[in-house]
Amino acid sequence: MNQVPSFTSIFQSASYTRSYLMKKYELQSINNSSEKAYHNSYTFVYYIQIGHHYFQQGMKSPVPIKPVLLFYGLSHWLKAALLTVDPDYPATTHVLAHGLSTRKRKKQGYQFLSDEIRLQKNGLFPYLSEKLFHVKQLAGDKRTMRQLLFGLPEMQTIMRVLLKDEGLIHLKRMDNGKFSVTKKDLSQWDGPLSSWVRHLSHDAKGELTWEETCNEVQLTFLPRPVNDSLSFRTSVDFELFAPKNRSYIINLPELLVHYALLYSLSMICRYEAEWWGELIHSFSADDLPIITEYLDVSQTKCPWLLNRLFL
Fold it and tell me: What's the mean pLDDT in 41-47?
């Protein structure tokens, strides 16, 4: 199988980028597609390349400053993605802020997993959610770091080892093309099995049928939901996952989960130096291995998700 080229390599060409944007605009019946694609092509390339530099430096940097660089890298890439659906971005100053806020932290007893982000009415986060992913977010809604991390396939192992729990169920692909999950894995779902399937059906982007046996549930997708949605998550090796219980249904596409996590960590780096320094040097809590594992995951998963989004 041919390897998919990296979006950071392809979008070094302004001429290719211009034709890419024009096709995007034409599919959305945007007026003056050619003119707007020409106008945005270099801005798009700059977003991609500056984001690439931030991300590359973040990957090489030590943990104390890594989140800031990764966050700015991802932010630039997402701004480029916005130009594919909104040729006038940024049309107002309302979309320039982060779109998230963090609560005031207490110096004593603070735990990263219990920390929250609050969704704001304006800013990049809600604008991305609505324009790029067609999901309306409610201002004032909160998400904990625990919820966000439990919703990432690549974080399941470390969360299971350290916290004795998982947030996602692995949907195992069978030889007949169906997916299976054991009833034991579904034991944390609050309600009958039919309600779990019904929840997935709403977000399957196609037909979903199911069969129940003594020990497992078998699912058939037509087609398989290969694109990440609000319910399904796909790992970098294309394994499929779904929420284990309702508390981990967070109504966020995975790219926005990474944006929120990196935003929170970057804010800690910049404004909570005492707690951040103590965490890194004391090795006294589960927060450190979870954060460092997440940073490793994000370095692979964010470019992988963007590659799927762009190409």
Answer: 98
Helices 287-310, 273-282: axis angle to 10 degrees equals 110
Instruction: Reply yes or no on whether the pLDDT at 254 is more than 70.
Output: yes
pTM comes to 0.94
Is residue 163 included in any domain, yes or no? no
- Which of 124, 241, 231 is closest to 171 using CA atoms? 241
Residue range of the domain that includes 14 = 7-152+252-310
User: Which tokens is 185 given?
Assistant: 């894995």
Gap between the terminal Cα atoms of the chain: 16
Residue 231 sits in the same domain as residue 279: no
Q: Which residues contact 283 (CB under 8 A, 6 or more apart)?
A: none
Q: Which residues contact 135 (CB under 8 A, 6 or more apart)?
A: 129, 230, 251, 252, 253
17-35: per-residue pLDDT in tens? 999 999 999 999 999 999 9
| pLDDT(107) > 70 | no
Which of 42, 41, 128 shows the shortest CA–CA distance to 82?
Answer: 128
The tally of domains found in the chain comes to 2
- Output the six-digit token pair for 100: 């998230």
Instruction: Please indicate, yes or no, whether residues 48 and 67 belong to a single structural domain of this protein.
Output: yes
d(CA 260, CA 251): 13
Give the Å distances, CA to CA, from 293 to 114, 145, 155, 236, 300: 17, 14, 8, 15, 11
How many Cβ atoms from other residues are within 10 Å of residue 289's Cβ? 13
**Contact assessment for residue 136 and residue 130, using Cβ atoms and an 8 Å cutoff:** yes
Residue ending a domain, choose from 202, 226, 244: 244
Angle at 198 between CA 132 and CA 125, to 5 degrees: 20
Q: Cα(273)–Cα(265) distance, rounded to whole angstroms?
A: 11
